[in-house]
From TrEMBL:
A Pfam family the protein falls into: Methyltransf_16
CDD domains per record: AdoMet_MTases (cd02440)
UniProt protein name: FAM86A protein
GO terms for cellular component: cytoplasm
One Gene Ontology molecular-function label: S-adenosylmethionine-dependent methyltransferase activity
Length: 346
């Protein structure tokens, strides 16, 4: 059905679908001229609400909110009810969702949800089908999960770091061995392993819950049997070698270390920088690329001061956030300051 859409309709359709699958709260609903079109409505149903097509659907509560608003807008768009109408398939989906017992908001925010990120800056996976690369993750979308960790959702800094890596795939990732600190949902690690052709990726985190969840997200991206990527617990500030493990990472090399939003809690900075030191000692030529959402400038300053005290060079990497209205996926705020840094030994 989508192939029957005009270029303008397809552009708005793709943007809306990608925002929906990423569980965005503020969606850019298509224009009325497209909404009242039968083929456009059928494409929306097939891509977003068809049980036969959508295997990793958003939560029912989210589906209902979007579909109610979508059908309201379609109804408003109709100029001639004798010639136009609302798709029976969409209305049947709405009736089914309305008839289902609603999940309370308190429960729904604690449940994990499928979130699909579109990597619009990468080449199409299938030119004939116009298939854009994606990453699907199971996330806890609330700010802090019940376990007390913030690592079960993907934050803006990880998305921005991912865009930077996509733009610099050849020089930074392809054929390289990657270590991610504070991997969280594994977005950056999965991106490197699945789409950017890294030779090996080690996704690490200090939380047992987060490391356990990584295997699920590897599976969702067909990486469960991959020898390229694996998860590992790494607690900052603790010795990487010694005792029963005289060789860290099995003696394997590391070319690049990545991290996103590791300094939101200033109390963890000393342990993080200590781990930098351990890694520089093991791999003197490595580079660290760090993306930080600067929510508290003083906290970020403490991080820079800690790096300086340990004689690490910090270079700002210039890579702007695309304006929100121009983003085609992944989607994230262009109003949040995100700092990208290259950290090396001096």
């Amino acid at each position: 059905m989508e192939s029957r859409l005009s270029d303008g309709a397809r552009q708005q359709f793709n943007r809306f679908v990608r925002q929906y699958l990423q569980l965005q709260l503020d969606l850019d609903y298509p224009d009325e001229e497209y909404l009242r079109n039968d083929a456009f409505q059928q494409s929306l149903h097939d891509q977003l609400f068809s049980e036969n097509e959508i295997k990793k659907a958003p939560p029912a509560r989210y589906q209902l909110r979007v579909l109610k608003e979508l059908t309201r807008r379609i109804e408003q768009s109709i100029q001639d009810w004798d010639e136009e109408g609302i798709s029976d398939d969409l209305m049947n989906c709405l009736s089914t969702l309305l008839a289902s017992p609603p999940t309370s908001e308190m429960i729904s925010v604690q449940q994990k949800s499928y979130v699909t990120y579109t990597l619009s800056s990468l080449p199409l996976q299938d030119i004939q089908d116009q298939t854009t690369p994606t990453i699907t993750l199971l996330e806890a979308r609330n700010l802090v999960a019940a376990s007390g960790t913030t690592g079960l959702r993907t934050w803006e800094a990880a998305l921005h770091l991912g865009n930077y890596l996509c733009a610099n795939q050849d020089s930074l990732v392809r054929g390289k061995s990657i270590l991610e600190l504070g991997a969280g949902t594994g977005y950056v690690s999965i991106l490197c392993a699945k789409h950017l052709e890294a030779s090996h990726v080690l996704a690490t985190d200090g939380s047992d819950d987060v490391v356990t969840s990584l295997s699920t997200n590897f599976y969702l991206n067909n990486l469960q049997d991959s020898t390229v990527i694996k998860g590992k617990e790494l607690k900052w500030g603790q010795a990487l070698v010694g005792g029963e493990h005289p060789q860290w990472n099995g003696g394997g090399g590391i070319d690049l270390i990545l991290g996103a939003d590791l300094t939101y809690d200033g109390s963890g900075i000393p342990a993080l920088v200590s781990t930098f030191g351990e890694l520089f000692e093991l791999y003197p030529t490595i580079k660290i690329i760090y993306a930080a959402t600067v929510r508290n400038p003083r906290t970020f300053e403490k991080f820079l001061e800690a790096c300086d005290a340990n004689k690490y060079a910090v270079e700002e990497l210039k890579f702007g956030i695309k304006k929100a209205e121009l983003q085609e996926g992944p989607f994230y705020s262009d109003q949040v300051p995100i700092q990208l840094c290259l950290i090396t030994t001096t």
